Amino acid sequence: MKEKKWGFKKVDGGLEISNGGEGNKKWGIMLGLPYIGGSVGRYIRRRKKDLLKASASDPDGPLLRLENLVKIYDTGAIKVLGLKKINLTIGRGEFVAIMGHSGSGKSTLMNILGCLDRPTLGHYYLDGHDTASMTPDELSDIRNRKIGFVFQSFNLISRTSALKNVELPMTYARVPKAKRQQRAKELLERVGLGERLGHMPNEMSGGQRQRVAIARALANQPPLILADEPTGNLDTASSIEIMELFRELHQEGATVVVVTHEEDIAAFADRIIRFGDGQLLSDTINDHHQEEGETC
User: Strand pairing partners for 72?
Assistant: First the structure.
């Protein structure tokens, strides 16, 4: 009797596991439809995760691509349309500002771009991966590998040194201790904080804390730096310093997306995308960059 050759195959909608047969002799399951528990289920989910990691992104393709993306919030009594059929592409190495007033949809878009939420309809491809159908665990994994976050409120761990804060994403990624300490030190030196490795967040200014946050965002060498109102808690001088640092990272090849409502901050970017009422209103190349030393 011929031995059956079980195999895994990545297909649209999930992962196919079959006996390798053809026609009516082929049978198997599609991951994501029935729930399989126990050791078999754990093995299948681990194998699916490995395949997702191994699937190569297209180095010549866009880093971010949204296709007919819709987000609907169901409050029970009413349904609120947060994003209305958005089509958007952001290439590798771009420096983009996303603008809009409160309620414009920019925060909803930021959550989807950051894999913190999923679209109701449509697709969001991050580095070639369609995130729309990913499980929470898969979204968490792709966030840690593909995205470096910078937040308005810094989100540093208090009573933990700058060095340890930058090490944190690498700890989750299981980078060996000696390697992550060395990289964290190099990153803090890169952002101008080489002499403050052991300082706690409450021993640093707002601008310095945001520099630590940027160093942390770079820890796992993600293809995307996503900054949500990164200068919102900073004074004018510190805001200019932080945006100059983003511009330097962009010039070194990083893809930087900044979500802001401030015109002066958006002026540092090469491309400005404006949202209003959940719709993409305009997408323009910025020919009038904010020059170093100008007042925000």
Answer: 81
